[in-house]
Amino acid sequence: MFAKTTAVDPFDLVIFGGTGDLARRKILPALYRRFCAGQFREGARIIGAARADLGTRGYRAFVAEALREAAAEEAGDAAALDAFLATLDYVSLDARGDRGWPELAAKLTEDRVRACFFSVGPSLFAPLAERLRRHGIVTDRTRIVVEKPFGHDLDSARALNATLAAHFHERQIFRIDHYLGKETVQNLMAVRFGNMLFEPLWNSLFVDHVQITVAEAVGVRGRGEYYDRAGAMRDMVQNHLMQLLCLIAMEPPSKFDPDAVRDEKLKVIRALDPVQPHHIVRGQYVAAPGRDEPGYREEVGNPRSTTETYVALKVGISNWRWAGTPIYLRTGKRLVARSSVINVVFKHAPHSIFGEDAGQHANILSIRLQPNEGITLQVTIKEPGPGGIRLIDVPLDMTFAEALGPEGAHHPDAYERLVVDVLRGNQTLFMRGDEVEAAWAWTDPIIEGWESRGDVPKPYEVGSTGPTDAELLMRRDNRRWLGIRP
């Protein structure tokens, strides 16, 4: 029932920022799980690179501890852990200078894939790219993985793309958005383009509206300095929510090919209408009575901050498929629950034969990204019992953990899939440079607009569903947000 794991050819993977938080929590556990799954052939090597003077032995001890925290179940296999640690090497280097670079170059193997993961702050992307080229590390089989943020606005994104393009071909640059590696996001494409049931209905004739929600229960969690400069619009909407919107709205590509998929996503971004001021809601969380979580300003130590921690938008797409069908986006921190879901709300039946007492009922396709990944289709049926016909809505549920059994419940983490795609050279789930720039070109006027108007975010309490203005945004259209459920 499930595809077999296919091993990738031997490779050298360099993790710049190999002792950082992202490497510790995500990248190294992902690599270890793929190693345990038998996806790495003998000879694969992982090289940590950072400023700390650890040495290979010290780095292996660091990684072992990280895996015991982030991948405790798998790390309990002592033999597997020792075998994985044996693939690790380490070099201490200066990202802005020349210290350590000759040593790194000497550790790399000729004639194999060289993947360089930039698990560092964006200010180091350009220096790393330049030094990789200067020290002869770049070959035709070298690939770089760049984490977000991809710039702070359109101008900085263009400058970053130009710098990377000076040292690498576009086919060598992998701009990672971990949302695209989630199992349910990829299943969205399978549901749309692999089933005749949905695609004929996937347009403004049958879809009333779409809601895309990415709700977080946590605050900024140590990212206060960065987040206070970025805000929810730059941190979430410009990348994560934009990618989900594209997958929902894109035309069927001619084939499941990296450029074919990304061409269609780019068309969606370029078709987005400018967002009107009355279609934007910004919010900032404040402390709630009876709860011990601080408000945003207290958490970041900036009592006058006007950075938004919540954004809701009404978005229109000017093309034949979606003209007239709004897409509502919302994302926020410190909300009532952690939940990422796409709800495709279909129109009501044009005429009800059951009378007014039956009420209005709509089919809703819900794609849950996290937690409890799965897909649910809400359909209308007769409520069981004697007497007249009373209609109720019930879900046809495909929760992966239930529908696919134990194997379906333990599908790979997003980083596992994306790292393996890098090693294979498959860019389908990664963003292209022109796609990033188009997203900023749409986002920048929204940010510039509220800055020029001096808009102040609306307060909302920790543990709520967001500011009341977001509810009003929907009520003006005689619609309502679907609930945020864990």
TrEMBL record:
* Record-linked InterPro entries: G6P_DH, G6P_DH_AS, G6P_DH_C, G6P_DH_NAD-bd, NAD(P)-bd_dom_sf
Record keywords, A-Z? Carbohydrate metabolism, Glucose metabolism, NADP, Oxidoreductase
Task: Cite the EC number.
Answer: 1.1.1.49
Q: Which domain of life is it from?
A: Bacteria
Q: Which residues bind NADP(+)?
A: G17, G18, T19, G20, D21, L22, A23, R24, R51, K148
- What's one Pfam family the UniProt record gives for this protein? G6PD_N
> What pathway, per the record?
Carbohydrate degradation; pentose phosphate pathway; D-ribulose 5-phosphate from D-glucose 6-phosphate (oxidative stage): step 1/3
Q: Which residues form the Glucose-6-phosphate dehydrogenase C-terminal domain?
A: 189-481
Biological process according to GO: glucose metabolic process; pentose-phosphate shunt, oxidative branch
UniProt GO MF annotations? glucose-6-phosphate dehydrogenase activity; NADP binding
Protein's job: Catalyzes the oxidation of glucose 6-phosphate to 6-phosphogluconolactone.
Q: Under which name does UniProt file this protein?
A: Glucose-6-phosphate 1-dehydrogenase
Protein species of origin: Jhaorihella thermophila
What are the top taxonomic ranks of the organism?
Answer: Bacteria, Pseudomonadati, Pseudomonadota, Alphaproteobacteria, Rhodobacterales
Q: Which gene encodes it?
A: zwf
